[in-house]
Each structure stands twice: as C-alpha cells, then as structure tokens.
Amino acid sequence: MPNEARAGAAPEPTPAIAATGLTIGHRLADGAASPVLRGLDLSVARGEFLAILGPSGCGKSTLLRVIADLLPPLEGEIAVLGRTPSEARRRRNVGFVFQDATLLPWRTVRQNVELPLQVGRGSVERRVAQTSSGDWLDLVGLSAYAERYPSQLSGGQRQRVAIARALQSEPDILLMDEPFGALDEITRERLNDELLAVWRRTRATIIFVTHSIMEAVYLGQRVLVLAADPGRVQALVDITRLKDVEGRCRREASDVVEMAAHLRTLLQEGAAAR
Amino acid sequence: MKRAGLGAAEAIGLPAAGALSLLLAWQFVVPAAGVPAYILPTPLSVLQHLVGDWRFLLSNALPTWVEAALGFLLGNGGAVLLASAFTFSRRLQSAYFPVILLFNTIPVLALAPIIILIFGLGLLPKVIIAALICFFPTLVNTVRGLSLVSASELDLMHVLSASWWETFWHLRVPRSIPLLFASLRIAATTSVIGAVVGEWIGSNQGLGAVIIQATFNYQAERLFGAVIIAALSGLAFFGVVTFAERALLKRNLGVA
C-alpha cells in the first residue's frame, strides 16, 4: 500500500494534535456562537499520553468532540496529524471511547469489536484489518467472552470491549472521554494499568479526559488542567519525570502524591478565580 | 394460605376447565331458556355443522386468506418503506406524518365503502382494506423504532465514518425489530378483520360474504362456523408471525 509506505518512511515531526487560537463550543439555533473554551494553543506529540483534567463545563469533552470531527471549531486552527479533523476521521486516524461503552446490545462482544470493519466502506480511505478482533480482545483480556452479549458483561468488561472496538480500526490517536468514570475504584485502577499496557503496545497517542486527579496523574505524561466559567487553560504540567521507562508510577509514591496535591491546588485556584 | 404461582398442570388445566364450563353452560342453559337454534345454536350443533359443511367453509376461507395475506404484505411492506423514507428525510416526515395520522382517525368501516366504490368488487379492494388496517400501527411503531438511537450511538457511527445507509442497517434496523414484530403480530389478526370487512360490502365469496348471507338467511350454525374459522385464521396468522420472529431472532441475534 503506497499510503502506508509513505507514512512509514517519513519520520517528519507532525504533531498528533496542533491547535492554535482554538475556540470551541456550540452554535446556537440562531447561528450565534456559544464558546466554552477560548483561544487554546496546544500541541500533542505523537505517541504522547495527555490527560485532561477539569471541572464540568470547562470544555474538555468538547475538545475531544472537535478533534473527532463531531463538532466544528468556532474559531482558530486545529490539525490532526497535519490534516483537518474531517480528513483524519475519514482516514480512521482517530478512535473514540465514550463515557458509556455504547455497545450494540444485539451484537456479541466479537461482533461489536468488528463493527469498524463493517461500516465506512464507501468513505474510509485507509482500511486496515491486519489484526483480528480476537487479538484485540486478547489485548484487553476478554477472549473468553467473545461470544457473550454486552448485557452479560460487567461495566468494566464493557469498557474493555469499547476500547478493543476503538483499536480495531488501528487509530493513531485514541480519544477517551471519562471512560472509567462510572466504575468502582478497584476496577478503575485495574483498567488504568491495562490501558497503560495497551498504550505501550500500540504506541498510539492517547488523549484521556477525566475528572479524577489520581487517574490523570497515574496515566498522563502531561496533564492539561482546565478551569470553567469561562473555560480556559489553568496549567499544562509535564509529569514524565514521575514515570518509569514503561510509563508507570506507584500511586502511593511521595512525588506522585505531591503532584496530585499540586494539581488539586491548581483546580481549586481555577474554581476560585471565577 | 396457598402460595402464589400455579403448577404446570393447573396452569393449563384451569383455563381449559374454565372454557369448558362456559361451553357446557351455553350447551344446556341457552336451549333451556327458550332461545331458538336459528338465533343462537348450541356449541355441539355448531361443531356438527363445521364438520359437515367444511367444504363450503374452506372454499370461502381461501379467498379471505389470500386477501388477508396480500393485505398484510402490502400494508406492512408499505409502512416499513414509508417509515424508512421518513427516517431518511425529516422534512418528508414533517410534511406527511401528521396528515397520515389524521387520515388514520377515519374508521376503516367507514372507509370500506369508498374503497369498494373506487376499486370495484374484485380482490383488490379487500386487499387494500386489509392493507390499510395493518398500515398505520406498523408505520407508527416502525418510525418510533427506527428513531430509538442515542446521541452517543450516532456519534460512534460518525466517528467510524458510517454512511446513512450503514447507520440505518447496522443501528436503526436492529433497534426497531422488536417494535416492528410487535405491530406485525397485531397486523396478523387485524388483516383478517380487514379482509372480512371488505367482503361484507361487496362480495359473494369469502368468510365475510358467508357471514352476511348466513345472517340474512337465519343460518345461525353456518354463521357461527364462519366466525370460528375467521377467528382461527387470525390465530394461525399470529402463530406464523411469532414463529418467523423467533426464527429471525435465533438466526441473527442469537437470543430470543
């Protein structure tokens, strides 16, 4: 495939995400703009794990929607792998894991994971299916559940299926919108570990939205802290130094706990400033 | 006190005993009360007539079955196609759905003479009446079923660059299947009603025609026989649809 070869041969440093002066929000029925986050400048490197932390209404989910071409930006520039969000979507560069797993209940786990292979036949320019659904299920530890239905799974298992489905189209960028928000603490921590393993294996860029400080510290290489009313960037904190070569850290390590406290202060300052 | 819930023997036996007791009461109380047989025949004489007159009844049931079946296919097929078109175009739905719902308030009994007037006395007007009676419930249910999708499901399809058709086929259609079959089960019995009503007005064959003629000729046993056959036909259609639903669910969805 010429496309694949070209992408592989060119190690040009196009960032995964490049946003300049980006204002995002909704357009009201009368055409007036209702921005939630103004003037965002952000560059996310390929293969980076960026956690976005912030209160409700700061525009963190809206940002994911703009990257995924679910919402047009109001102002400014956004490039996804150097392309427009729409082009990136049609090249299946971007995978999305929603807050609720959004599995189709009449499909088995395997059939749900294979959905990306069955849709987008007319419009997707880059089709990859080198990895079978079984391998993705293996990666998220659900091979034994391939023939089950979503109603027979726990909440954590459903989110694993949703991750496997997003990986099935082999995206360069994985957008995750509070995927573990509804899970209990223990399940969430286990899934965080599994997600880091997936990240190492796939080398995908992951942008992970959460309102859990610990989750942001544990997962991210950088943490983008947003404030609400009006939505704005409070801080962008590089925490790579807390992590080992595999991107892991111990939750109870003193520097990790300190970082969590620091992020909490930033969040509180953001809330107090309004 | 007895605990709630019945054993299997009782669950089948009690309704059967109930039905039997009513039939027995009919068999013995009605003649004893002096009601003449040409007004209300006894169950046994109706059964006797059914056995003796089966050739006549069957030859009249056949056209009714054909009309009901064709009406079922036409009405439900049309309803599913229109519901799909409404799903494709919100504008089309806004323009025509209210008009069609308004049209639905006209009783089929009142509509039947008009249809006979337009389409004459052949097979077609009966098929159309049977189709109309199936059409509305299926249209309303299918439009509703096809729209039962969540915002995040539509987001998922958009992220995967699914076309309108792919979203329709992989998301909307499977979601609407239970509601579609709910209305198909209703249509199975109402299509027979539609065919019979059509035959009342302009026909010399079919169960509806037999019902009218037998009424005017005081052939009470024949009348009851025709009514029973009509009821059993509806039941049989219902059974066929239920069977088709089970088969489809088993094959495509794995769960019933």
Indicate the proportion of strand residues of chain B.
under 5%
Largest beta-sheet characterization of chain B: none
Order of helices and strands of chain B: HHHHHHHHHH
Taken as a percent bin, the fraction of beta residues of chain A is 15-25%
Describe what you observe in this structure.
The complex is a heterodimer of chains A (274) and B (256). With 274 residues, chain A is α/β, with parallel strands linked by helices. Chain A has one domain: P-loop containing nucleotide triphosphate hydrolases (Rossmann fold). In chain A, 35% of the residues lie in helices and 23% in strands. Chain A is built from ten helices and nine strands. Chain A starts with a helix and ends with a helix. Chain B is mainly alpha-helical and 256 residues long. Chain B has one domain (45-253): MetI-like (MetI-like fold), CATH 1.10.3720.10. Chain B has helices spanning 8-32, 43-52, 54-88, 90-103, 108-119, 123-146, 151-159, 164-201, 207-216, 220-253. Chain B starts with 7 loop residues before the first helix and ends with a helix. Chains A and B meet through strand 5 and helix 5 of A and helix 7 and helix 8 of B.
